[in-house]
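User: Could you walk me through two proteins back to back? I'd like the raw sequence and the structure tokens for each, with a short line separating them so I can tell where one ends and the next begins.

Assistant: Of course. Protein one, sequence then structure:
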Amino acid sequence: MTELSLAFALQTPADLHAIQKLEERAFGPGRFAKTAYRLREGVAPELSLSTIARIGGMLVGACTLTRIAVGGAPALLLGPLTVEEPFRARGVGEALAQRSLEAAKAAGHALVLLVGDPPFYERLGFVRASWGQFVFPGPVDPGRILFYDLQPGAGEARRGLVTSG
């Protein structure tokens, strides 16, 4: 990542169209059928916690956090985390996620959930959820549900249905 002249910033409404195009290229139209996407339908991302990466004027990555609830208690959903193909495996995704997690912790949030690749996210400190700990409103591979404690013990203390925030 050091050879890239990356600039990180918080997302703004002006970035949303470019982020949608990036997600379209990375995940295709099938992304809308996924439960995590359905949870985010009609819910604006938390722009004060969501980050982007640019090289010059080109958007090369984005990490979005959205408000959700777990068993009625507030939490955040990380995703999508998207990086343009030529810039993957260079630490851009990790840097985006870390910046978003730091912003969420500084803002006083307690817990972040995601549905994703365990080997990637476990390197960032995410932990696999216990079977049945978090119940999503649609099909989700339970082995891909992970959480990150922004406050000690927040993940283990929460259980229940995951709903839009």
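----
Protein two, same layout:
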Amino acid sequence: MEEKSISAYKHTPRGLAVPDGRLSRLARLGGVAAGVAGNVALSGAGQMLNGARPRMSDLLLTPANAARITRQLAQMRGAAMKMGQLLSMEGGDFLPRELADILGHLRNDAHFMPPAQLKRVLSAQWGADFMQRFRRFDVRPLAAASIGQVHRAHTRDGRDLAIKVQYPGVRQSIDSDVRNVAALLRLSGLVPAEIDLAPLLDEARRQLHEEADYAREGQMLARFGALLADDDAFAVPAFHADLSTRDTLAMDFMPGIPVDRLAAAPQPLRDRVMTDLIRLSLRELFGFQLMQSDPNFANYHYDETSERVVLLDFGATRAFDPQMVASFRALLDAGLADDADALRAAMIRIGYFHADSAARHQEAILGMTRMAMEPLRRGGQFDFAQSDLADRMRAAGMEFAKARDFWVIPPMDTLYLQRKMGGLYLLGSRLSARVDLDRAMASAGIQGE
């Protein structure tokens, strides 16, 4: 039986109720597993009748099976969907291309709650008469993601707001969703057995609990607004406490387009936006010691009127311990100086490897770190479009992944930081930006020009 193309399995976002019971969510995942097994049996039987001797990996790793899982994760949302997002981003270098491509659609194509379910959620948070507070409340969301969706609303006192509404049952199902999705992907064979999922599982679980805490996100939103009040390059929506609850988060509505749509904008604008975002990340780490760690492009919008980057979604904000920040600074200084001994000492202190780790493992990780720091060490203008750094880093990572006798998992801080920096590199490549790294570091207070 001929396999359809991957594009045939893409889903279109639409209003689908979020299953909010643990048993119903587990049953859905069980149904996916049964469907995958059925596809394997049917395809295998067909190939054997035609005289072929199919391999199990070929039967499992099909667009149809990957898409079956993706569709169900998109409908379940919550931790189940976040797992698919993280796997597509973090495991993209190691997963089969078909699976990574299909899971990648989860980053932007979430379904949304139908009006009846949305009304029940809002009534539970604001009372049955909640519409008396608004002149208008748009039922169709501006955006829908893994744990909530965003609606535009106009209050009777004249405020133009964006309101995040959390999906029902998400908070209570985080731990079970993470366990169940990991088991599904492992047992189905859609994730190769040699991939260690433990760091991704821990990250997904921690991040989901933080992102589901809307009170915490409101605090982070207000804090970043204060930290960046004097920076003309950025805008942060104001937090509105009176309409924020356990499952709703209200903030100013701010116009703008997703920053990756600037790919066709004039070169100077692309360069300026990318430089500002790199500068901001350096300030977050070494100045604020507080970083919005989710690199999703949708978290950055560009307002053409004010010519500022609008920062959105502070659910994944992470505070860094001052000692860890000092270690990262030592790592940066050693990398800039190309001091191998100082670099090794800083990496041991951070936890990338131990002092008694095998020399070949230390050298491999040091080599990748030195490679990642090449643009900073070289200084001057870095042209994302002309660089082959990503390809070389991917090849080195694939080679290192073959060493199954090395199991040192670095601290969570490093995983968050690497993910943020990796996202910035992807955005720079998407925009074909050219950035004066010396100037960006100097403006962030890292070194003199």
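The chain is about 50% helix and 10% strand.

Let me know if you want the two compared in more detail.
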